[in-house]
Specification:
The protein has about 500 residues and is an alpha/beta fold. The chain folds into two domains: about 160 residues, no CATH class; about 325 residues, TIM Barrel. Helix content is about 40%, strand content about 20%. The strands form five sheets. The protein has an eight-stranded parallel beta barrel. Helix 1 runs parallel beside helix 3, helix 2 packs antiparallel against helix 3 and helix 3 packs across helix 11. The chain is globular and about 70 Å long.
Length: about 500
């Protein structure tokens, strides 16, 4: 068991929300645990006696509220000081990434290194005050403030350096910015300004709605949507073609004991129908999405890989010119600790990359801003580090979203200031600069066109519930000019 004392502004905390809290094992893999806060003591009980880390949503003065973590700590009777351990982890991660990114003593990093050094000195002072937990916590909080600032500056500096190289080399994908457009969106809701701002649209498919029985398909609504975009010469991508999330399972398969060979045949049948009808219309398709995390049929590891291989191989056979994409959802992996018959996302991605499966790219699903596992806010340093981790030799497409409003009942974290339309636009610009700088990033898709169709993150649309454009839409247009020098586009009003 791990125990922590928790302080805020030099005083013990009387109440602490541990909704977001969970424990991590080796390689930051989530483990089953129980976290409670009572009598001014945070206790973390895990299933094994191995060293573990605690992740928790934490308010950092002047920086925002983020899901941070400690280093892996051995169990002991004496409580740790949470403030100190969070500062320790952050400082260690920065020093590690400075080495990974080759930025030690790099020109023009003097101000960043000053922040790191200040943080280090404050942390050492905190360690020297171990007999005075309140004072140690206050010094650790100051150290964390500096290291958060340093990490943010480091991620942005590294991105600026790489982005300059990428822009000079001319290797940016011309189809860089897109948005997911749900089937429920009517064509009259898509204004010319919206379409002119986007390089592509992604249409998420729902297996359950399209595959209504053996050799029976309901493709009429999808036909009309595809035809609408083709007439406007929009590049089309399909998302989540095969997903075993409960909401995507055909009604006629639910509650039945489906043999694996039958399931393979159904996947084959469905993919063949979709490819035969739309293969010449699409640029790419996420042939499988989230099989590692959403496993309605309770498949084992080998069966999940087999479905992945079947879908990717069949996709390349039927649509050799359309990119076959494998989508990783919940890439932080929190679900793995409490959802049976799932695979850690990085293990799945690594196995897919090494197993000889014929596919073209990964997609990472990275929305932030909901008070549930996988959607708590991380800072740009953490986001940059995660993208690096999934650099497995294949191009990467990103899907993201953050809210444009703060709901009082939703404590999910925030950057700098609580969420507003302007904060949303500012966040996305920073996200894009960091993401696009990475060598393997091919495109960025915004998850939500308008608030009525928000999926993971409520209130995250490019358009609000009245279908009025938010500042983020104009920001995308500005980035188009900056990154792609696209002078033909009509700026959104």
């Amino acid at each position: 068991m791990l125990k922590f004392l928790v302080f805020k502004d030099g005083s013990p905390v009387d109440q602490l929300d541990v909704t977001s809290a969970h424990m991590l094992g080796q390689d930051d893999v989530p483990v089953k645990s129980q976290v409670e806060y009572a009598d001014r003591l945070l206790t973390c009980q895990k299933m094994t006696e191995e060293a573990g880390a605690l992740a928790i949503l934490w308010d950092v003065r002047g920086a925002g509220k983020y899901l941070l973590q400690t280093t892996r700590l051995p169990s002991r009777e004496k409580p740790y000081i949470l403030n100190v351990e969070l500062a320790r982890w952050r400082l260690m991660r920065i020093l590690s990434k400075l080495e990974d990114w080759g930025l030690f003593e790099y020109p023009k990093t003097e101000s960043i290194m000053e922040l790191v050094e200040t943080s280090r000195k404050l942390f050492i002072n905190a360690l020297q005050e171990s007999q005075s937990p309140a004072k140690a916590a206050d010094l650790a909080d100051q150290s964390l403030e500096k290291s958060m600032e340093a990490g943010d500056a480091l991620a942005k500096f590294h991105a600026s350096h790489l982005l300059g190289i990428k822009l000079q080399s001319g290797v940016l994908n011309r189809k860089l910015f897109g948005c997911r457009v749900n089937p429920g969106v009517t064509t009259d809701q898509l204004s010319p300004e919206v379409l002119a701002t986007l390089n592509f649209v992604q249409i998420p498919l729902n297996w359950g709605q399209l595959h209504t029985g053996r050799q029976q398909f309901n493709l009429g609504p999808l036909d009309r949507q595809v035809e609408f975009f083709l007439k406007r010469k929009m590049s089309i991508r399909f998302g989540s073609v095969i997903s075993f999330a409960q909401a995507n399972i055909p009604a006629w398969l639910k509650g039945k004991n489906i043999e694996f060979d039958v399931l393979r045949d159904l996947v084959y049948e469905y993919l063949t129908a979709i490819a035969g009808r739309y293969g010449k219309c699409i640029r790419s398709w996420a042939v499988v999405s989230g099989l590692h995390a959403e496993n309605y049929f309770g498949l084992n590891f080998e069966q999940i890989l087999d479905i992945t291989r079947l879908a990717s191989t069949r996709a390349k056979q039927l649509c050799p010119r359309a990119g076959a994409v494998i989508e990783i959802v919940h890439p932080w992996g929190e679900y793995y600790a409490h959802t049976p018959k799932t695979i850690h996302p990085f293990l799945y991605a690594d196995m897919v990359a090494q197993s000889g499966i014929n596919f073209d790219a990964f997609a990472l699903h990275l929305p932030f801003g909901a008070a549930k596992d996988g959607f708590y806010v991380r800072d740009f340093f953490q986001i940059s580090s995660l993208i690096d981790r999934y650099a497995l030799g294949k191009p990467i497409h990103l899907t993201t979203a953050v809210p444009a409003m703060t709901l009082p009942e939703r404590d999910c974290g925030y950057c700098d200031t609580p969420w507003t339309p302007e904060a949303q636009a500012k966040w996305f610009e920073c996200f894009c600069q960091i993401a696009i700088s990475k060598p393997l990033i091919e495109s960025i898709t915004w998850e939500t066109l308008s608030d009525p169709f928000s999926e993971s993150i409520p209130g995250s649309g490019l358009l609000d519930d009245q279908w009025t454009a938010r500042p983020i839409l104009a920001r995308i247009y500005e980035m188009q000019k900056k990154f792609l020098d696209s002078k033909q586009r009509i700026p959104p009003q």
